[in-house]
Automatic annotation (TrEMBL):
Residues reported in the UniProt entry to bind NAD(+): 38-42, 87-88, 118, 141, 178, 295, 319
Amino-acid positions noted as binding Zn(2+) in the UniProt annotation, renumbered to this chain: 413, 416, 437
PROSITE patterns to which the protein is assigned, alphabetical: BRCT, DNA_LIGASE_N1
HAMAP family: DNA_ligase_A
Function: DNA ligase that catalyzes the formation of phosphodiester linkages between 5'-phosphoryl and 3'-hydroxyl groups in double-stranded DNA using NAD as a coenzyme and as the energy source for the reaction. It is essential for DNA replication and repair of damaged DNA.
Keywords on record: Coiled coil, DNA damage, DNA repair, DNA replication, Ligase, Magnesium, Manganese, Metal-binding, NAD, Zinc
EC number from the UniProt entry: 6.5.1.2
Named cofactor requirement(s): Mg(2+); Mn(2+)
Catalytic activity: NAD(+) + (deoxyribonucleotide)n-3'-hydroxyl + 5'-phospho-(deoxyribonucleotide)m = (deoxyribonucleotide)n+m + AMP + beta-nicotinamide D-nucleotide
Coiled coil region boundaries: 7-61
Organism lineage: Bacteria, Pseudomonadati, Pseudomonadota, Gammaproteobacteria, Lysobacterales
Name used for this protein in its record: DNA ligase
Length: 841
């Protein structure tokens, strides 16, 4: 039985919790100065819910707990607005705004009237009724005279106060404003919906409107809605301040959020200045706006101006250019990005959106196309916000040709013809022709030349960009064909202007120029301005440099570079660096190829386990799973890369241009543990072929070809259940899978012949031991020390633990040394490391 003291205590705690939660909402939504962490807010709300459940007599309609949503309603009741919610007239030009102000000036006989200005939020207009400071009813605008009762839904919007703050408020107060969805919240909501296979919202405005018209308030409670107050309707028993701006300030003090972008300006210039400021900031605002609103600030002036039809003469909306328009989707092109991402781009019938003619729009990815069900020929709604790339937001299905086929991602890259692939679990499709795809060329070459790859010192980003743009370098192999003339010519064209390029080249021609060289400058000159110069900017055309270099190279012109007038040492150094990089390791070479998901550690593992490029480049993807830590995703990526003829051609070209891999060796004897048909059948990820089933198949058939030739009933005879046998037969009926099994069988035989027996492999002196490097070594770089320790069998880790065998500490060793001493781990200095390496290498 509840005692009076406990009930009093509960009532006091409930009152305190409500006050604390209401204050938190006020500070968050009105003052934009939150003081309570989300976790603390949730903890206090749960405590209040528990107290109200234990003491039903303390429940209240304006409690913060009532925001969570109530039982669904069957329909919305109508609400008649005591004061109609009128619409505003629109202005679309400076002249219309000036005309609006002129009429007010003439009628009121004022020189520069003051206006309250505010952003025009793109949400849903609502009316909130308060009696004695408590929220009692909320309604939509409807047709202006009659709206729908959405009280239960509005109670879930935390920005709307359930009871007013302070004191002195009217016995009856009607507040009008806009419910909207903040852009960040809209984005987060849709991202979560996609992860959960839920329904995404078309745009913030539709999200806000649809949320308030849910018959189940619990659904509304899950939507990230916000609110701004911008006016009052019915006010009883209270005299408003004389101006609209003062009323907004009063509403703010009573607990209503009012846009911080609101203000007061004077005259036409003040209005237009505000419009331009908000237009410039439009794309950085946390909410969507489609214009600004001007209201005569003085209430007496408003009454004198009166109304015309359904709109006030004292207010107007100055609209921004429309951000959404309808047009026809004429085609879908595939654009390949620098990382190979294949992005669908819509080709549109030209349409003006937000003041700009739009002909293309992003479709993001294939999943987005499927969600929108966009088809060529559809009428679509295109949205553009400021400088953001236009996007298609929805389809108008009633205009669709009923025979329009669904769109599918093409199989081949439109740039290089390589296969377009999509990895399991990823939204992005990618071109697999990394080394040969022109769209990916700069990034591929930049990576190829980087320090931890081929380490071509001096080949920087600026030159790579120019080499690629001028087509001097079309693949990594072309780097090894660069001559001194090529480098200096490219640098000269890079630095010269279009008007001086011919003169700059003439200065360095050989005295004994051949006939082809003489033709280079024959009149009319090949280097004429209309070929080289962009008329609008008087700068190089995008293909101007490419044109100059191509015709000079085609003529086989010989230069005698005047070293007093042009620097050549940098080019000589770069030629030397390129030549030096020809001698490399398998690990570096594999990393340099830029295969997706293949970083340094994976490249090192491939080199260690397989040992030879010619072997690696011919392996089917399941064999790569024999390397520890390489799973299906990385193995498939390797397989796709080496299956592309263009990538194989680049490797051939690199080898033909004397790139040498100096550390080739036989495959690791450790491979033998997995070199059997059963293991590889599991690696191939055949449906319903588990390890047990794979062992049964391997025992029954012995090799891949016999398994491939066997009829389905033979699989059952081998011990497979009927469903497993059917799944295997179905899988093998696909030509691609049958070919893969054949390749796996051939590779298995080849590896079996190449791989030494495990007994012949001598264990390294550091096998099974973990080492850590810290500080600076004088005789070795950290990378060199790591490589030499790993060659002796050690695993080199980045942190010290109890499992660490020893720590090598150089100069200025830090926290890792302290940790080693704390744990009692053995510490070597550099001299001991060098002595150990000398003894065991």
């Amino acid at each position: 039985m509840t005692t009076k003291n406990s009930a009093d205590s509960a009532a006091q705690r409930v009152a305190a919790l409500r006050a604390q939660l209401e204050d938190a909402n006020y500070r968050y939504y009105v003052l934009d100065d939150p003081t309570l962490a989300d976790a603390d807010y949730d903890r206090l709300l749960r405590e209040l819910e528990a107290l109200e459940a234990a003491h039903p007599e303390l429940a209240s309609a304006d409690s913060p707990t009532q925001r969570v949503g109530s039982t669904p309603a069957g329909h919305f009741e109508e609400v008649r607005h005591a004061v109609p919610m009128l619409s505003l007239g629109n202005a679309f030009s400076d002249e219309e705004v000036a005309d609006f102000v002129r009429k007010i000036v003439d009628r009121l006989d004022v020189e520069a009237p003051s206006f309250s200005v505010e952003p025009k939020l793109d949400g849903l207009a609502i009316s909130l009724r308060y009696e004695d400071g408590h929220f009692v009813q909320g309604a939509t605008r409807g047709d202006g005279a009659t709206g729908e009762d959405v009280t239960a839904n509005l109670r879930t919007v935390k920005a709307i106060p359930m009871r007013l703050r302070g004191e002195g408020w009217p016995p009856v107060l009607e507040v009008r404003g806009e419910v909207y969805m903040p852009l960040a919240a809209f984005k987060a909501y849709n991202e979560k919906a996609l992860r959960d296979d839920g329904k995404v919202l078309a745009n913030p405005r539709n999200g806000a409107a649809g949320s308030l018209r849910q018959l189940d308030p619990r659904i509304t409670a899950q939507r990230p809605l916000a609110f701004y107050a911008y006016a009052v309707g019915v006010v009883e028993g209270y005299e408003l301040p004389p101006t609209h701006s003062a009323t907004l300030q009063q509403l703010r003090e009573w607990g209503f959020p009012v846009s911080a972008e609101s203000g007061v300006v004077a005259g036409t210039e003040g209005l237009l200045g505000y419009y331009r400021r908000m237009g410039a900031r439009r794309d950085s605002l946390p909410f969507d706006i489609d214009g600004v609103v001007y209201k005569l600030d003085d209430y007496a002036g408003q009454r004198e101006m009166g109304f015309v039809s359904r709109a006030p003469r004292w207010a107007i909306a100055h609209k921004f250019p429309a951000q959404e328009q309808s047009t026809v989707l004429e085609g879908i092109d595939i654009q390949i990005g620098r990382t190979g991402a294949a992005t669908p781009v819509a080709r549109l019938k030209p349409v003006q959106v937000a003041g700009v003619v739009v002909t293309n729009a992003t479709l993001h990815n294939a999943d987005q196309i499927a969600r929108l069900d966009v088809r060529i020929g559809d009428t679509v709604i295109v949205r553009r916000a400021g400088d953001v790339i236009p996007e298609i937001v929805r389809v108008v299905p009633e205009y669709r040709d009923p025979h329009a086929p669904q769109w599918r991602m093409p199989e081949a890259c439109p740039v290089c013809g390589s296969e377009i692939v999509r990895e399991e679990g990823e939204a992005v499709w990618r071109c697999s022709g990394e080394l040969t795809c022109a769209a990916q060329r700069k990034e591929a070459i930049r990576h190829f030349a980087s320090r931890r790859a081929m380490d071509i010192e001096g080949l920087g980003e600026r030159f790579i960009d120019l080499f690629v743009e001028t087509e001097v370098v079309k693949s990594p192999a072309d780097i090894y064909a660069l001559t001194l003339d090529d480098l200096i010519l490219v640098k000269l064209v890079l630095d010269a202007s279009p008007s001086t390029v011919e003169m700059s080249l003439r200065m360095h021609l050989s005295a004994n120029q051949n006939e082809e060289a003489a033709k280079l400058f024959e009149a009319p000159s090949a280097f004429r301005p209309e070929v080289l110069v962009d008329a609008d900017s008087n700068d190089w055309r995008t293909d101007g440099r490419q044109y100059v270099i191509r015709i000079v190279r085609d003529r086989a012109v010989r230069f005698e570079w005047n070293r007093k007038k042009i620097a050549t040492k940098w080019a000589e150094n770069l030629v030397e660096a390129i030549d030096h990089s020809r001698r490399t390791t398998l690990e570096r070479f594999l990393f340099a190829l830029g295969i997706q998901h293949v970083g340094e550690s994976t490249a090192k593992a491939l080199a260690l386990w397989f040992g030879d490029l010619e072997l690696i480049r011919r392996l089917p993807w399941p064999l790569f799973k024999r390397v520890p830590d390489i799973g299906g995703e990385v193995a498939r990526s390797l397989g796709h890369f080496f299956d592309q003829p263009g990538n194989q051609q680049v490797i051939d070209d690199l080898l033909a241009r004397k790139v040498e891999i100096g550390d080739a060796h036989a495959p690791s004897p450790k491979l033998r543990d997995g070199l059997n048909l059963a293991t590889l059948l599991v690696d191939m990820e055949i449906p319903k072929v588990t390890k047990i089933r794979a062992d049964q198949l391997a025992t029954a058939f012995g090799d891949a070809q016999k398994l491939l030739d066997a009829p389905e009933h033979a699989y059952i005879t081998a011990g497979l259940p009927a469903d497993s046998a059917q799944a295997l037969a179905s899988w093998l009926s696909v030509d691609e899978n049958a070919q893969l099994l054949t390749r796996v069988g051939e590779a298995l035989a080849r590896l079996d012949a190449l791989t030494p027996a495990a007994s012949t492999a001598a264990a390294g002196p550091l096998d099974g031991q973990t080492a850590v490097l810290t500080g600076t070594l004088s005789a070795l770089t950290r990378d060199e020390a790591k490589a030499r320790l790993e060659a002796l069998g050690a695993k080199v880790a980045g942190s010290v633990s109890k499992k660490t065998a020893f720590v090598v500490a150089g100069e200025a060793a830090g926290s890792k040394l302290d940790k080693a001493q704390e744990l009692g781990v053995e510490v070597w200095d550099e001299a001991r490391l060098l002595a150990f390496l000398a003894e065991h290498e």
